[in-house]
Task: inverse folding
């Protein structure tokens, strides 16, 4: 591995170690393996896999990775320096990271005198010896060492001479990287710039190959407690740091670590540094969603660069301009990071939103068409009554088809009735729905039970339609949300029901609004089935063509 071009930066991902220190995040060995391989594909050169001496899961993880190694990344175990007044060679934790069988290891040591005297309860000299012995021992075992200077910035601010002594000790002992950590996340960018510049002056930062360099390179590891983690990492890089540590989606202890999903595009697209390949940068959005799926945390829809809303345009003025030139309201092209532009429909829309939506549905509509204005007016009127089409794009599509006289009537609901039994002492209610539907001029009457009125209604409707449209057997109701819009008016409150449906490949959301919760739900359920049929027949048509 060599670093020559001055614009080359080394990314170090710690999702599998510091990321898992986030409250509420827990992963299995299989999850860790899947994430490691995905980060490898993304082109991250260093992946911190965990602390093998600290728990059996991390020991297993490193062993299993040996059987199915990464393609390009260095997998790195993490550990502290030896404890006070012990021999490095006798430390079980250090034996555990050696047993992980990697080329690189990361150890963290104390930079802040307060931590030495109060945390470790040892002398400042012994702390220096702990750093030196540990690095020398790991090097004697053939490992390349990354030294994380914990609490570097706080330590430097309190006692700069001692803090500098700790990293000079690490450098002399042979660490190849000195990573300055803003462990408590309280430092501001101007302080980072100043302090990193001092370190670079003191330590030197020659451009040379990693394996030959006697002078360690400087890295940065920042936390987000002041919401400065990304800004601080950028400030450090601009001051000369060559390694950037962070995590996918910014997961990490307390408020998280520097978010690589923001750092990488900022470094690469804005500042011109080279971190990962262009074809890898456009996997960033997918990687962010993959990791959130594996760790079972809902993705942040508003995350910069990779969030679903990162390139979503809602205001009519924005949509009008973006349609003419995306640069007007987008700082980068969404495709560069694997994301996509979305046009959101709402009461804040103008004709441009409607036209863009029509285009995305394959319909030609222009600003002078009277239907375009009608669609906009109808949508705004419905929004004023409680509809929210940005959350129910399928219902908006049906509204457009209707206005353009393209809405196919697959069936017509003539009426329905729902009865609920609430029996004292029974925890669940039984509901029975009867429904009358007309299909191709034929009336069908069906009844079905469900554990709630909406489930019963959905079941009765499907029963009535299944002989005409067998494909609805593949549709499922995946989510159902209800919101009371003017809760202060008691029973006269308006209910908004959102139903999410799916067919195994796609999901779509429909909406219903009424002062009757059943009526609102019924509208959303019916449109959900109708839209599913529409998708099915559109796909059929395309296939036949
Ligand atoms: C800034 C960071 O994020 S550092 C990483 C933090 N991550 C974690 O702590 C997660 C994994 N940790 C663990 O599983 C456990 O804490 C272990 C296995 C490491 C240690 O467990 P225990 O031996 O029971 O100790 P405990 O967690 O109570 O205390 C930490 C010990 O590490 C010592 N320690 C802390 N930093 C260092 C260091 N840089 N070098 C050596 N020892 C250190 C503390 O002084 C304390 O020692 P003591 O118990 O002799 O006083
Ligand atoms: C090492 C580390 O995770 C920190 O100092 O924050």
Result:
């Amino acid at each position: 591995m060599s670093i020559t071009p001055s614009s080359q930066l080394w990314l170090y991902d710690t999702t599998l170690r510091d990321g898992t220190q986030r409250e509420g995040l827990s992963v299995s060995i299989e999850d860790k393996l899947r994430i490691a391989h995905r980060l490898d594909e993304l082109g991250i050169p260093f992946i911190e896999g965990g602390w093998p001496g600290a728990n059996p899961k991390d020991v297993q993880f490193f062993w299993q990775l040996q059987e199915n190694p990464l393609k390009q990344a260095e997998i790195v175990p993490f550990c502290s320096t030896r404890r006070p007044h012990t021999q490095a060679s006798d430390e079980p934790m250090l034996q555990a990271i050696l047993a992980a069988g990697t080329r690189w290891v990361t150890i963290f040591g104390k930079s802040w005198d307060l931590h030495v005297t109060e945390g470790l309860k040892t002398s400042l000299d012994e702390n220096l010896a702990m750093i030196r012995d540990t690095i020398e021992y790991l090097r004697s075992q053939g490992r390349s060492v990354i030294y994380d200077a914990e609490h570097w910035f706080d330590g430097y601010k309190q006692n700069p001479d001692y803090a500098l002594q700790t990293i000079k000790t690490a450098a002399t002992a042979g660490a190849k990287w000195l990573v300055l950590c803003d462990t408590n996340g309280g430092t501001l960018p101007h302080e980072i710039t100043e302090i990193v510049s001092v370190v670079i002056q003191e330590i030197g930062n020659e451009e040379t190959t990693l394996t030959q360099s006697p002078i360690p390179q400087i890295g940065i590891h920042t936390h987000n407690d002041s919401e400065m983690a990304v800004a601080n990492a950028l400030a450090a890089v601009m001051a000369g740091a060559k390694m950037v540590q962070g995590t996918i989606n910014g997961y990490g202890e307390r408020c998280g670590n520097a978010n690589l999903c923001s750092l990488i595009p900022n470094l690469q697209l804005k500042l011109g540094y080279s971190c990962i390949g262009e074809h890898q940068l456009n996997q960033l959005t997918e990687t962010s969603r993959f990791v959130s799926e594996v760790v079972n945390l809902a993705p942040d829809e508003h995350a910069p660069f990779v969030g679903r809303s990162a390139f979503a345009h809602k205001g009519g003025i924005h949509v009008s301009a973006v349609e003419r030139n995306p640069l007007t309201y987008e700082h980068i092209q969404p495709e560069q990071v694997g994301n996509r532009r979305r046009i959101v429909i709402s009461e804040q829309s103008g004709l441009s939103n409607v036209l863009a939506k029509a285009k995305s549905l394959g319909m030609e509509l222009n600003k002078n068409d009277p239907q375009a204005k009608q669609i906009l007016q109808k949508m705004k009127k419905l929004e004023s009554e409680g509809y929210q089409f940005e959350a129910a794009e399928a219902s908006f599509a049906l509204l457009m088809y209707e206005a353009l006289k393209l809405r196919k009537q697959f069936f017509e609901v003539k009426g329905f009735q729902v009865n609920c039994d609430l029996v004292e002492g029974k925890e669940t209610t039984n509901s029975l729905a009867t429904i009358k539907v007309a299909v191709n001029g034929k009336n069908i009457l069906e009844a079905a039970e469900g554990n709630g009125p909406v489930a019963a209604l959905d079941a009765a409707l499907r029963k009535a339609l299944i002989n005409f449209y067998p494909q609805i057997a593949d549709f499922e109701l995946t989510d159902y949300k209800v919101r009371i819009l003017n809760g202060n008016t008691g029973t006269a409150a308006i209910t908004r029901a959102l139903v999410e449906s799916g067919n195994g490949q796609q999901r779509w959301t429909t909406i219903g609004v009424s002062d009757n919760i059943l009526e609102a739900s019924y509208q959303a359920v019916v449109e959900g089935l109708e839209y599913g049929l529409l998708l099915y027949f559109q796909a059929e048509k395309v296939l036949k063509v």
